[in-house]
Structure formats: structure tokens, C-alpha cells
TrEMBL record:
CDD domains: SRPBCC_CalC_Aha1-like_3. It comes from Longimicrobium terrae. Belongs to the AHA1 family. Pfam families: AHSA1. InterPro entries: ASHA1/2-like_C, START-like_dom_sf. Transmembrane segments: none annotated. The lineage of its organism: Bacteria, Pseudomonadati, Gemmatimonadota, Longimicrobiia, Longimicrobiales. This is Uncharacterized protein YndB with AHSA1/START domain. Residues 20-158 form the Activator of Hsp90 ATPase homologue 1/2-like C-terminal domain. It comes from the Bacteria.
Amino acid sequence: MNQQFAANPKLDIVIERFIDAPARLVWEALTKPEHLKEWYMPREWGRVARAEMDVRPGGMFSIDIAVGDGEPFPNLGCFLDVVPMERLVWTSMLFPGYRPAVFDDIPITAVVTMQAEGTGTRYVFTALHRDAADLENNRTSGWLEGTEIATDQLVALVTSLK
């Protein structure tokens, strides 16, 4: 992925946090399924029933989400760019191996960057959307709120790993 990537405020959502822990621990929380299960889904809303990751370009990003006592809902995507402890990019618009996806949800491409800052890490999550309608839907449907809660859970998990 181009190092000069810039978010577009008309199409993208950016969530940024300072995490008082080294990028190594942020990376572990993002890429190890046992850690991802701890933070990815807002606890009040549901749980991660299953997570599987093949962290390499073209590799699988698979997370099954369960809400309440309901059946797990699968989420499958593909990693596009992997630079350990610096950048992780995945999309729900492709299945593993860069195969075109079939989906009934709003697709996104997620760009996560990590940069050392003092004793910690500047974490930036950017969700790229197809169009303004998808962006507005994710802002108002609860997706944004849930993603912000999950990010707070990520920060808490990473700082507990120190």
C-alpha cells in the first residue's frame, strides 16, 4: 500500500488513540485470535465466537460474531498489506486469496497504522467506504459506536499486556 495514503473525510471514518504500550503489544492484540476475541466486539453487545487469521497479504481474516444467544454471524475478509508493527490493511470486499467477495453488509477496507510516540504507540484505524451513503449508514447504524467501544477495549487490553 502506498505510504502516502490519506483519509478522505467525505468517505472515511478515522479513529485515533494513544496507547501507552509498545507497538509490539498493539500488533499482538491485532493479529492473535486469542487477543482479538477479547476486544473486537463490544462486550455489552455480544462476543467473538470464533476468530481465525492468516496474517499475510492474501491471507484470511475470519471473525464470527454472536449477539445475545443468537447464532454466530460470519465475517470473512482478506489481508491486503501487512507490515509488522507498522501497518495492517484488510478488506471485506475480497475473500482470502484476493477472491471477489459476496456480502450482504456494508463493505469496508480497514487501514491500521501504528507509530511509536514517546513511551507508547499512536494507533490510527481508518475505515474506507465505497460511497457517502455507506459512510452515513455506518455512522448512524451503531457500527461507528461499536467500533469506538471496541477500540477502547483494544486500548485496555494492550495496556494490561504490559
